[in-house]
Write a structure and sequence with these properties.
Blueprint (H helix, E strand, L loop, with lengths): L7 H5 L30 E6 L2 E2 L3 E3 L5 E2 L1 H13 L2 E6 L2 H9 L5 E2 L7 H4 L2 E3 L8 E6 H4 L11 E5 L3 H9 L4 E5 L2 H9 L5 E5 H9 L5 E8 L2 H4 L6 E3 L3 H17 L1 H9 L6
Helix pairs in contact: 2-10, 2-11
Length: 270
């Protein structure tokens, strides 16, 4: 789950939001909204880290900022709950939550069986789909089947490379050490398409306007690309978990979640 994101992620936060883009939608609009007992949650102590841009990091002034930070504060504001947000080193954050030095960890902790044995998780609020990227001229009428016999750039030994091997056996994989190197090869005409992490590709596309674009639909495969982002809580903290899930639903329905998403990810990877 933790990503090695370049400094470009910070610059994206300063870009104006893009319009008419696909947005995350992990709330069932038809689900009946059950209002939890918020009096049982007078405050939420959020834990996070400061080394995971653009989700949670320190800016040039040393302030804790990022998508996750804004989301935590928006939750508390919407629910009228007093909150604190405290940064921990990544290698200590989960243990701090386990020791109940906080009520919730919003830092991209992976939803794995091992972590599930220790913690409860909120509803997923963001996933990281796999995406194809092609030259702009080829993106509009893109069909994955058309890649048979063509060169597709991937990061070497990645789950995205495995996806292409499984489902596009006719494509010719071209391996690179990083997603950026693979995307640069696409820009220079060395390959016909790229397939990889949509978030990293969005960063790259933001600085290569006019070259390339996302092509086709996003691919959500939890078995390959992870379950997505959720907020971790000590096991049994049902009142806090229910309050957070209720707040996430309210933020999505009100449009606040979408505003935060486009503030930090002006090139949507959905």
């Amino acid at each position: 789950m933790r990503l090695l994101v370049s400094a470009l992620a910070v610059l994206l936060a300063l870009s104006p939001p893009a319009l008419a883009q696909a947005l995350p939608h992990h709330v069932d609009p038809g689900a009946r909204e059950i209002v939890p007992n918020l009096t049982a949650v007078p405050t939420i102590r959020f834990l996070t880290t400061a080394d995971f841009p653009p989700f949670n990091f320190r800016d040039d002034k040393g302030e804790l900022v990022g998508f996750n930070i804004d989301l935590a504060r928006a939750l508390c504001n919407d629910l009228s709950i007093a909150c604190t947000v405290q940064a921990w080193p990544w290698d200590q954050a989960a243990r701090a939550l386990e020791d109940k030095q906080g009520d919730a960890l919003i830092a991209g902790l992976a939803i794995t069986p091992e972590n599930g044995a220790l913690f409860d998780f909120s509803n997923v609020y963001l996933m990281l789909p796999g995406r194809f990227v092609t030259p702009v001229a080829a993106a509009g009428e893109f069909d994955p089947a058309s890649l048979a016999g063509r060169r597709v750039a991937v990061r070497r030994a990645s789950t995205h490379a495995e996806f292409v091997r499984r489902y596009l056996a006719g494509a010719t994989l071209v391996d690179f050490d990083t997603e950026i190197a693979a995307l640069d090869a696409l820009q220079h005409g060395q390959v016909d398409a790229f397939f990889g992490d949509g978030l990293r590709a969005a960063f790259w596309l933001n600085s290569h306007v006019g070259c390339c674009d996302f092509a086709g639909e996003p691919y959500f495969r939890p078995d390959l690309f992870g379950e997505g982002f959720a907020i971790a809580l000590p096991a049994g903290h049902d009142a806090v978990r229910q309050a957070i899930d209720y707040g996430l639903g309210r933020l999505k329905r009100s449009g606040v979640f979408d505003e935060l998403y486009l503030r930090w990810f002006p090139v949507s990877f959905y």
